[in-house]
Structure formats: C-alpha cells, structure tokens
Amino acid sequence: MTKLAPVLSAHWDEKDSFTLEGYKRHGGYTASAKALAMDPDAVIQLVKDSGLRGRGGAGFPTGMKWGFIPQGDNKDHYLVVNADESEPGTCKDTPLLMANPHVLIEGCIIACHAIRAKHAFIYIRGEVTHVVRRVNQAIADAYAAGILGNGIDVVLHIGAGAYICGEETALLDSLEGFRGQPRLRPPFPAIAGLYARPTVVNNVESIASVPAIIKNGAEWYQSMGTEKSKGTTLYSLSGHVVNPGQFEAPLGITLREILDLAGGVRPGHKLKFWTPGGSSTPLFTDAHLDIPLDYEGVAAAGSMLGTKALQIFDETTCVVRAVLRWTEFYKHESCGKCTPCREGTWWLVQILRDLEAGKGTEADLAKLLDLCDNIMGRSFCALGDGATSPITSSIKYFREEYIAHLTNGACPFDPVASTLFAGAGA
Amino acid sequence: MAYSQEDVQIMESIIKRYPRPRSAIMPLLHYVQSKAGYVTNEGIEAIAKILQLEAAEVTAVSTFYTQYKPTPVGEYHVGVCTNTLCAVMGGDAIFASLKDHLGIENDEVTADGKVSLEHIECNAACDYAPVVMANWEFYDNQTVESAKDLVDSMRAGNPKPPTRGPNKLVTWKEASAVLAGLNDGLAHEGVQAGEPTLLGLKLSKEGK
Q1: Which numeric CATH code is attached to B76-171?
Q2: Where are the alpha helices (DSSP H) in A145-217?
Q3: Chain A: nearest CA to B173, how far in angstroms?
Q4: Is this structure's pTM higher than 0.90?
Q5: What residue of B is the nearest CA neighbor of A245?
C-alpha cells in the first residue's frame, strides 16, 4: 500500500499539464463553477470542515482565516496569494506553479467568492522567470476563456528579491509600492490589509488545495492525514539523499518513510542533521526519524512543520558552517526596521565566523545563546526568531562540534567531501 | 535614454493593472531595467513623473530590492546559489571556480559585457542542487565543469538553454521585461517539470 497520495501533483507528468487544455482534461474549473453556485458562507464552512491548514509555515486553519473577513462592511476585500517562496530549503510552490498554474487560479476564484472579494493578487518572487511566464500565460488564457473577468480579477505581481516579502504584512507593503517592511499587528490583514481593506493572505499550496476539496468534499479531505493535520501536502526532500524530489503524502508521514522511498541517504554515508520545514525551523537529528511530520508531531519534538522542506545533511557536513551560512542569509535579508533583528543578526554572524574559523572561545557559545534570547520575540515579524532556530538547535545537539573547532583551531571538516561531485574528479 | 511614446503607453498599461497607481512601482522598475539593463536615473525620473512621486521615493523602493541593479550587469547575469544546502552540495566550489574562470568578483561584469556574477540566496529548487540561475532561469544539478561550460557558451554568444525554461536563454533585458509582467510568448516552451518534481508521483504510480 503506497504511503503517497498525489492530489496537487496528480497530473504533473503530462507534458501539457500547465495549459488550460491540460487542466480541463481532469475536471479543471468544475470546482469553481460548483463553488460559484454555492452560498459564500457555505464555501467557507466546507473549507473549515475539511480541516485544511495553511501550508506556508504557520498552519493556521484556512477556512477560519476566511471567516475573519467582516461581511456587509461595504469595503473592497482582497485575496493575496503568497508565492514569494524563499525560505531556504523550500521548493514546492515553484514547481507547482510551473507544472499547474491553473489550479491556483481556480483556487483564487473560489476563495474570492467565499470572502466576497473581486480582486486577487498573486505575489510571486522575481527570481523565477519561467514560472512568471507560466502564471502570466495561465491568467491570460483564463481571461480569454471567460473564466476570469466576470466579477473576479487576478493580477500577477512580481517581486524583486527580498525574502522579507514572504512575511504577510511586508508583502502587503511591497504590493502597495513601498519598501517591504513588516507592519505591527494588530490590526491584522483580515481587518486592515491591502490598502487598509480586509484582506486574506494565503500560501500558494493552501489556495491550490481548495479546488479538490470543493470537488471531493470535506469528508474526503478529512479522511487523509492525522487527527488535527488533515489532507495531503507536498514534502520537499533535498540534500544528501539518493533521489531528492517532491513527495505528496498525507500529513503525518515520517522522514524514515520518505527516505525509504527516496533510496535513503547517499551510499556510504549517514544522516547527521535535517530541517523539517526550512532553515527557520529548529534542526532535527537521526533521533527524529520517526516523528510524524504533521503540525503537532513536529512541534511536540521541539521544531515546526514549517514548509515541509526536508533538507538532509550527512556526516560530512560541518554544522557550524551550515549554521553560519544560514545566519549570513538572515543578516542579509533582515529589512532593518527592528533593532533586535537588524543588529542582532549582524552580531550573530561576527561570532559565528570566528567560531567557524576556530578563533572564538567557549564563552562565545553562551554569548550566542544570550543574543538569541534577546532577538527572539522582540521584533515586528518572525525573521529574527527564525534566525535563532538553527543556532540554538545546533548548539543543543552539536555543542561538541563547536568546541572541536576551538580545540582544533580551525574547521575540522573537508568541504569537498560534502559536495555532490566529491570523488567525481571535479 | 529617452522614453518613447510607446514606452509610456506600456508604463500606463502596467499602472492600469492595479487599483492604486503606486502599486505599479515594482513592475515599472523591472520595465526601466528592461530598457537600459539597470535602473538608471532617467528610469527613476520617468517612474516618479508618471506616478506623481518624488524621485527619492522611487529610489527608496529601488534600493530595497536586490534584483534592481544600480549599475549595468552582463547580457547574461549568472547567480550561483550559496545558501547552505547548495553551498554544501557544491555551490561554494562552483562560485569560486567561476570567479577564477571569469576573472571577476561578486557583483562584477566581464570586460566584454557578456557575463556578470552574483552569489544568490535560496532559489526554490533545492531538489535540483547545486543550482545556478542565469537571467533568473534554472540551470539544475550543476558541477564546476558544467558551470564553466555554461559561461563559456555565453561568452561565445551561444548560451546553453536552461534546464527548466524556454528553448533558448533570453537576454537580461528581455528577462526583465518578463518580470515587468509583459508576455514574451515563451510560456509553452520547456518541460512542465523536471525528474525530481515528478519523483513522488512516479513512485506512487509504481505502488510504492
């Protein structure tokens, strides 16, 4: 019995899966037709009943988010789709949109109907030229076919290289034409979002999951997954494995099961550490292979399901080097608005660079943890919080390795050994 | 450079996508980049004028986002992912060898103006690591040798096509127009998905 359950990915292996014709071949746009004939509140209820939760990292119930939009307020409402996929390790929305942009458009129509919005914006990151082409063409084809433009408009907005714009309020500022910096909440976007109007911000995978739920019903979706984490989702496996890739499975599958399907860690090597949901989620080790990868299971083990970005590192990888590189990323991407994040990530990098070069002292580890403590929870958004995750978790599990850099006076690892082409004459 | 009547019409059509004009500032910046290859002062002025903003307000936005370039880049702008996973898998080695091979540093352009180099952050293709981007098109599963071959092909004026992208690599200016939301008619070209994207689906069809 297969552990996989392709729903979103069910037809990605058809050459024309990204075209309107390819999408319609498997009942594309029948779910939106069905939803448009329903009372909007009934659509919200159905999505609530399905148990669908946000696939962008936080796991907030999608139907409940839609239900927060005030009704009868005589204001414009907006749907904004977060396609700014940039969390290190995360690579699910990008292939989804390349292979099937129409499922997102259909999801937008359904969501707009439910929250009484006439306008949806898809905010896609700017570093994916061909994905931009595919989504733009799909929108044009949907207009030409009369699917869009009859009361619901979808606009593609293309970003320009800023991780912070994946944070929903920074995304809204960016979409309004400003520097992408987070807003203080409350008010939440449901009350004052885009142009200070009630706005739902959902991840690509969340919205793309909706058409199948409308088509097959809440009970069908409920039948997959675990008690509080329903349905299927895309797990993205990368790193030191034999066969990396996308694995769509019911929530609750374990890394051991996914690794079995992927042929395991590369031959002759063993798992050292991994992220369950991108670099902002605390690291796991080989002690966590059997944790159910659902929202509750991962949280109970001290991390977060996040974006289900399973980055696998084997024993050749220096954890200090890995953490330093992620920390440099957070420093670079900090928008500078809040002092603890702007200054804190700068200091984290200084200390980690010394440690990686074997130049620090053991007291620097305490200093790192103290800095993390002063960054965590002290800024408008979670970027700074995310920056602390790899540091605190790596010190928790690999303190000796940090110390070994100091006693050795240098990094004890050979970076060549961890490359994909190690030993291949590169 | 001066903007033609046609350019202004395109800029106005970009503004019409949005309920409020200021929202068009980002696609307009991509658009002026498609004309000059980078964000020129003239481009900033043109956007400020059409949106009725101060030039400083447009500059403030332009300088926030790394894809808007304040100086010219190459006809082919090459980005090597050196975020943790790609770096460990070979991205660091690829970036170092390209710098050496091209004789340029990060954020520099070759003397012939063909190739520029930048180390980039995670580009959402980790299952294809190590990843190299050119004009923001995917070049998957790169090695030191394949990346050198790629930049050589660019300098020879016949760049290798992307792994998941159109049949032919477009220029930096052409790609910038796509990022301004203009349709270049190439969406149908290239694969719908690479092998890693399809792995789970394939295994499930095999009953695994």
Answers
A1: 3.40.30.10
A2: 168-175, 189-192, 204-216
A3: 12
A4: yes
A5: B196
